[in-house]
Backbone:
């Protein structure tokens, strides 16, 4: 199976390259030779690659910066995603598009299902929702995967930030009134590979559409941080305590959803794909990061 993945630096891309070894041919394409803001260039590259599946993992992910650069976010997350989907449609190739919990406003008191009303509260979420719409409109043969709270041994993420802060601090303030599903990018990669394989073999309409794919079990950011520090302490790091703070105590340009929990039952029922509990995946990630620090 030949998979073209957009982006070269992201956590999901790096995870797909690692997890795909021996299972698929992963071809990562990104700037400067592949620029989502250049639709003709996107088309030429995809035409030349002739993949069996396209995974659109490239994204403008600077959530706070997007508030002052909504055009930049839309250029990549909306119009760029649409251009990739147009290329997939022209080739007759399935596209898997990675999206986000930020398409919701975070006000529900239960995990979000795929058919719940969207309502992004910031520029990043708006750009990602528009990307979903453009992908769906351009290519019927699509699976849009919403995920959340992504971490991994690669790139910049919450786990790496906590480990860095823990090197110089004995206490770290972490938001305790936002709840979501911490999700390993390595687990996402395993899920994407399974979905890609199924899509190339089974044209069923029920396997196309929007799906939620996040780690099992939920947590607050403070819970997540406490687990990171506990794992680090067991590996010989100095203890670090978490000061539980409110969102209001840590203002940011972009509003974060209070509830980012995703209901993953549709993906499990239709694809048989369920990502594991975030705690064992986090333990593996922290061990790996500390081993190479």
Residues:
């Amino acid at each position: 199976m030949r998979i073209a993945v957009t982006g070269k630096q992201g956590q999901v891309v790096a995870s797909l390259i690692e997890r795909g070894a021996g299972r698929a041919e992963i071809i990562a394409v990104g700037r400067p030779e592949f620029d989502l803001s250049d639709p003709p260039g996107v088309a030429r590259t995809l035409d030349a690659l002739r993949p069996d599946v396209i995974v659109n993992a490239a994204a403008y992910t600077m959530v706070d910066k997007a508030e002052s650069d909504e055009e930049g976010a839309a250029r990549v997350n909306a119009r760029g995603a649409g251009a990739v989907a147009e290329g997939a449609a022209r080739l007759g190739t399935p596209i898997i598009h990675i999206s986000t919990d930020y398409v919701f406003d975070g006000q529900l008191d239960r995990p979000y299902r795929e058919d719940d009303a969207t309502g992004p509260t910031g520029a990043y979420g708006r750009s990602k929702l528009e990307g979903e719409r453009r992908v769906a409109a351009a290519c019927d043969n699509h699976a849009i995967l919403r995920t959340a709270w992504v971490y991994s041994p690669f790139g910049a993420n919450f786990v790496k930030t906590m480990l860095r802060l823990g090197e110089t601090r004995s206490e770290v303030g972490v938001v305790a009134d936002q709840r979501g599903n911490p999700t390993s990018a390595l687990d996402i990669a395993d899920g994407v590979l399974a979905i890609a394989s199924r899509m190339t073999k089974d044209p069923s309409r029920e396997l196309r559409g929007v799906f939620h794919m996040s780690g099992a079990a939920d947590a607050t950011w403070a819970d997540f941080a406490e687990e990171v520090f506990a794992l680090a302490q067991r590996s010989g790091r100095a203890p670090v305590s978490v000061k539980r703070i409110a969102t209001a105590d840590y203002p940011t340009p972009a509003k974060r959803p209070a509830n980012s929990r995703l209901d993953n039952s549709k993906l499990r029922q239709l694809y048989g794909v369920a990502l594991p509990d975030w705690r064992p995946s986090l333990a593996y990630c922290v061990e790996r990061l500390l081993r190479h620090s």
Q: What stands out?
A: Residues 2-156+183-216+260-276 form a domain with the Rossmann fold fold (CATH 3.40.50.720). The chain has a mean pLDDT of 96. The chain has nine helices and twelve strands.
